[in-house]
């Protein structure tokens, strides 16, 4: 009976409904995927007319299948990726065809017997050179697909040309169909609901900054919260703490950022993105954002380890550490807003100044707590959290500098009072944590050598 129930029509219906809901969710998460599917279908339908219409078929013949193959391998999700593959395939096919025909006629000059030897040598030489060029970083990043197509096309033309008499006609037909397929992909990708890689990269950087900001804004309340016994929250009243894990996607965004930046380089100017938009600066901001994310990962470890925030020592530094975390999060949120709105960052300086005051306050409290009434195992985690927060503040400062540079290179709009707001940051009103570096090193030394052990405490009490 159980086996029959598992294969019953009701279970099959549930499986089908579940599959439909997954497809629906996939389309709702990004409606551009549906549009992309229709665009690919439209491109293949158009190039299929080469076969369906007799006048076109007479001019191109069976080589028209290369147009369909070109659409399948060239049409990508973003316009930049389609342009990258289309331009690489077209130029590589043209260059390889010309060199293949040249190699064919050069080999014929050496006679019938030497012709295959010369062709084999030329294939070996050019394929070796082209394959080695794929290891060059710049070519690997932007022209790797083109080099691959060059090797394929040149080898086919050189080899088939030895047995085919009408090599010029064959090369012309294949090149024409490949250009038709590539041009169709590029036109549809740019003109019909285009998906811009540059815009996706821009939004990804903004999203990453917002995720880090959300974590920092809520971190202080999480780590210094004193839970009550028997206090359980469940059901619909359970607070949403997804911000504590959302930052993890930032740590794995390097490959996506580099891929989007590479494709964005191929795209024409669109919207607020100029043709020479500084995409490399986005990568620099991404690197700094991940560095900040790694520090946040360290802080998150103390949340997972059930940090003892109820100790007397942690209560002394609770307020400045919470302020430091919150203000750093607000600064990152302001930076994300400035990038999103293409405007100069003008409101971060105030938050960074507050962070610096909190750092000074923490340093003062730590120096004032050099009496050995605390257990070293209790205070070291608190000091580590405070130190990590100061490192995060330094990361936010470097991100601010990088975004200011992006604002200059991309010609972001500047508010009327922006120059006055930015002046304190450049003038040194926001001191770096490095200014207190020596004091912190001395303090750590004192902590290590001055805190007495339990036996020393007993001896002191007896004395």
How is this structure best described in words?
It is a single chain. The chain is an all-alpha fold and 463 residues long. The protein has 21 helices and no strands. The chain has helices at residues 2-6, 9-29, 32-52, 54-60, 65-74, 79-108, 115-133, 137-142, 144-160, 167-191, 197-223, 243-246, 248-251, 254-264, 279-304, 312-340, 348-368, 376-409, 418-427, 437-450, 454-462. α6 (79-108) runs antiparallel to α7 (115-133) and α17 (348-368) packs antiparallel against α18 (376-409). The longest helix has 34 residues, at 376-409. The chain is elongated and about 95 Å long. The chain starts with a helix and ends with a helix.
Based on the model shown, name its key terms:
single chain; 463 residues; mainly alpha; 21 helices; disordered C terminus
Please give the alpha-carbon distance between the first and last residues: 84 Å
User: What best-fitting shape do the alpha-carbon axes yield?
Assistant: elongated
Give, in order, the helices and strands. HHHHHHHHHHHHHHHHHHHHH
The value of Rg in angstroms is 32 Å
Q: How would you characterize the largest beta sheet? A: none
Q: Helicity range of the residues?
A: over 70%
Low-confidence region ranges: 226-236, 419-463
If you average the pLDDT, what whole number results?
Answer: 80
Strand content: under 5%
What oligomeric state is this?
single chain
Number of strands: 0
Number of helices: 21
Query: What structural class should be given to the helix and strand makeup?
Result: mainly alpha
């Amino acid at each position: 009976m159980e086996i029959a129930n598992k294969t019953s029509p009701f279970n099959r219906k549930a499986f089908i409904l579940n599959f439909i809901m997954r497809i629906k969710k996939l389309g709702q998460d990004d409606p551009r995927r549906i549009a992309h599917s229709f665009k690919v279908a439209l491109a293949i339908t158009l190039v299929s007319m080469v076969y369906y219409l007799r006048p076109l078929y007479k001019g191109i013949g069976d080589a028209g299948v290369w147009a369909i193959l070109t659409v399948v391998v060239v049409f990508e999700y973003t316009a930049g990726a389609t342009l990258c593959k289309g331009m690489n395939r077209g130029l590589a096919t043209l260059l390889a065809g010309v060199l293949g025909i040249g190699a064919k006629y050069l080999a014929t000059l050496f006679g019938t017997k030497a012709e295959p030897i010369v062709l084999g040598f030329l294939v070996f030489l050019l394929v070796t050179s082209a394959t080695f060029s794929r290891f060059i970083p710049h070519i690997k990043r932007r022209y790797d697909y083109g080099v691959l197509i060059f090797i394929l096309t040149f080898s086919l033309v050189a080899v088939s040309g030895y047995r085919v008499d009408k090599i010029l006609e064959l090369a012309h037909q294949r090149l024409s169909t490949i250009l038709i397929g590539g041009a169709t992909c590029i036109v549809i990708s740019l003109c019909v609901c285009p998906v811009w890689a540059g815009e996706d990269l821009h939004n990804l950087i903004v999203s990453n900054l917002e995720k880090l900001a959300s974590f920092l804004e809520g971190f202080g309340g999480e780590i210094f919260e004193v839970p009550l016994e028997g206090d359980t929250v469940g059901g619909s009243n359970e607070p949403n703490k997804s911000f504590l894990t959302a930052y993890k996607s930032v740590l794995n965004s390097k490959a996506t950022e580099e891929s989007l930046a590479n494709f964005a380089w191929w795209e024409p100017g669109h919207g607020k993105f100029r043709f020479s938009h500084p995409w490399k600066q986005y990568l620099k901001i991404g690197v700094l954002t991940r560095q900040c994310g790694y520090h946040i990962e360290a802080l998150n470890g103390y949340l997972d380890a059930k940090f003892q925030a109820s100790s007397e020592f942690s209560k002394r530094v609770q307020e400045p550490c919470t302020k430091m975390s919150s203000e750093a999060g607000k600064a990152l949120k302001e930076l994300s807003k400035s990038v999103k709105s293409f405007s100069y960052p003008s409101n971060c300086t105030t938050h960074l100044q507050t962070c610096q005051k909190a750092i000074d306050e923490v340093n003062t409290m730590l120096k004032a707590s050099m009496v050995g009434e605390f257990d070293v195992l209790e205070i070291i985690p608190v000091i580590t959290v405070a130190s990590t927060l100061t490192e995060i503040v330094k990361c936010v400062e470097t991100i601010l500098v990088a975004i200011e540079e992006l604002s200059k290179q991309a010609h972001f709009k500047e508010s009327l009072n922006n120059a006055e707001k930015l002046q304190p940051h450049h003038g040194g009103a926001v001191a770096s944590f490095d200014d207190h570096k020596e004091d912190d090193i001395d303090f750590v030394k004192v902590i290590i050598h001055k805190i007495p052990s339990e036996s020393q405490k007993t001896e002191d009490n007896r004395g």
